[in-house]
Amino acid sequence: FREAVDKAKRDFKFLVVYLHSPHHQNTPAFLQETLCTQEMKDFIDDNFVFWMGSITGSEAYNVSALLRAEGFPFIAVITTSVDNQTTLCDANDGMVSKEDLMNWLLNIVETQGPQLVAQRAEQEERDMDRRLREEQDQAFQEALLQDQMREQQEEERRVREAEAQEAQRRAEKEEADRVERERRAAEDAEAARLRRIAEKQALFEGPAPSGAGTCMIAFRLPSGSRLTRSFLSSERVQVLYDYLDAYGEIEFPEYEVATNMPKVVYRDRTVSLEEAGLTPQAMLFVQEVV
What we know:
By secondary structure, this protein is α+β, with helices and mostly antiparallel strands. It has 6 helices and 9 strands; from the N terminus they run αβααβαββαββαβββ.
């Protein structure tokens, strides 16, 4: 209800309030023959803000007490002034025909409508004054801002030049530092790679095993070259990866070994070569993990 009152005030229209009494004997006929006819709907939509509520609900019940509704069907017309004073223009209770209700509403519009017209004119004048003040304030603020910007331009130019010189100095130093860091990182990485290779190669010092309980493994490397070595059949698959790390010169960040036919990838490095089916000999291809 309050939203409808506010809307009527904003739109400078009368608010038609219908209080619905579902159990009253005249309610069905009033709805069918008067209020809910298309002609009445169009008339109210074009000229009023409409609100209805059932008195079985708390909101409509409170509105009925406010408007002192005694009979039903109950129709009231109210208006709200710009100073939020809500006024009951007129009320009608009891059965009324479509023509009589429309004439009653028209009479209210004709006799009390000029007040809304005057309120609308006053509001439009106030809005125009407000917009004019806002435009003047905005123009003043823009002029003030332009003056401030002009005053700051020279100072900002000097600051920019000083900052540009400092930024160039920092950039040159940062570039030199970056080059030095990259050089040291490359040296450290290469030294670490060589250490890892040396550690892996140390695992295979001495002659390769031979005889019973060994298997011969040939590796086809990504470069197309081959490596061949014998291993104990009881060693884990991990030993193949250690051997490739030591002598394979593989550039892939991650790789795996697999047979070609049938295609078997040996990812489980904990099983023995014999358990993996790589005895007595096997050809393994080194491939990148993608």
